[in-house]
Amino acid sequence: MTKKGLWSGVDAPSLHHALEMENRTQVLGTYTGCFQEAARAFAEKRPPRWQAL
Fold first, then answer.
1. How far is 2 from 26, CA to CA, in rounded Å?
2. Nearest in space to 2 (alpha carbons), one of 19, 26, 20, 18
3. Quick check: 29 and 6 in contact, CB under 8 A?
4. Does this model's pTM top 0.85?
């Protein structure tokens, strides 16, 4: 998602549009549960166990 957002920002017609795309990407990223698993794995000093999206 980060790479897609980056490349979308390159072709964005304005800074406002690029920021809106980034905000959308950030919101979508919070619904995957990946951040919570990454934080738990880091705290428990283990590799993350990703679930299928």
1. 9
2. 26
3. no
4. no
